[in-house]
Design brief:
single chain, 190 residues, mainly alpha, two-stranded antiparallel sheet, Altered inheritance of mitochondria protein 41
Length: 190
Amino acid sequence: MLRLFLEPTSRGGRPKLYRMAMRSYSSEVTEKAVVPMLLRLRSDLKTAMKTKDTVRRDTIKEVLANIINAEKKNQPIDTDEKIRKLLLKSASAQKDVAQQLEQQNRNDLRDKELSQASILEAYAHEIKIVEGDDLKHAIDQIVNALKSNGDHVNTSNLMKNLRQSNGPLGGKAFDSAQAIALVKDMNLGK
């Protein structure tokens, strides 16, 4: 809504025209899920900046930039599982670059890339992965929920529900290959 009003001047000159803009804000509050590793990365970035650890600082900045870019592309990285995949993918890319630098006899740059890859892998391995009985229990919950809703129970539906941040795993990381093997062992299609 836009309103226009005139304000008279004290010296009798022409009145000034002012615009007043009113904005209506949504009363709906949307909360983002708190991702523990994301909080940890931001905290470690501050620590790395204070201690002037440039390799760690640059590595964390790159990861955070990738997370922000993914949000802009409507593919938000909003779970620890997605952060873990991003970290492992980035570490793999760093190792490939280090290998190419070694072939070019650029050992100084190779060492930097390898140290960044080791930092990324360390963060990725800190993320707890749901396995075994906990994963089987979550799959059983999803199967029961899908059956009670009358939905078709198949591997793609199960995996989609496992990955949801509001699902039984709560967005925690899990081994996809193990989950698929558990689903196949259940013989749902038969």
